[in-house]
Specification:
This protein has about 180 residues and is α+β, with helices and mostly antiparallel strands. The chain contains two helices and five strands.
């Protein structure tokens, strides 16, 4: 009986520590946006903004209003509102604490999204609130974020996001994750 109780306790602890399944970025887009994105022609990155202006006002916002509508889409997937997710991406730091740890950042699906044009559409940008903070020495280093996703329109001088998340944990992707 004692052995059974120990095994049950071990099993429950393992389940409690298990990570959520990974959420794919394209799942955050409604089907019609995914289809429009797949059918979109190539976009030229040969513009003055390609030199990297993410730190300037409007740096992540779409500057060229001649792009297909999907590149400005704030359409979301309602089923994700209030859902706990595990998602990987790249940080664009916005605010730090006194120790230099990022406590507020945008999470984007690909590296360099903050310095190449065009940036991801708002439904492919998540504002992450993480009061505990994480040391981000390299914005090209991928991270995992776990937390409760909300459908929440966020707009600031840098970018527009269609989702926000109160993160429970944030960590760098490690070799063993791949």
């Amino acid at each position: 009986m004692r052995r059974l109780a120990c095994l049950l306790l071990l099993f429950c602890c393992t389940l409690a520590r298990a990570e959520l399944p990974e959420t794919d970025w394209l799942e955050l887009m409604p089907p019609e946006d995914r289809k429009a994105l797949e059918e979109m022609p190539d976009i030229s990155h040969d513009t003055p903004e390609a030199d990297g202006t993410f730190g300037q006002q409007g740096g992540l916002k779409q500057q060229d209003k001649n792009l297909p509508a999907v590149m400005y889409s704030t359409k979301t997937v309602a089923a994700f509102n209030g859902k706990k997710i595990h998602i990987g991406g790249y940080p664009v730091p916005l605010e730090s604490d006194a120790k230099g740890r990022s406590t507020l950042f945008f999470l984007v699906p690909y590296p360099g999204a903050c310095i190449h044009v065009p940036p991801p559409p708002p439904n492919q940008i998540v504002l992450v609130r993480y009061p505990e903070g994480i040391q981000l020495d390299d914005i090209y280093a991928p991270i995992w974020v776990d937390g409760t996703l909300k459908v929440e329109q966020v707009s600031n001088d840098l970018a527009d996001a269609a989702y926000a998340m109160d993160a429970g944990s944030v960590r760098l992707v490690e070799e063993g994750d791949l």
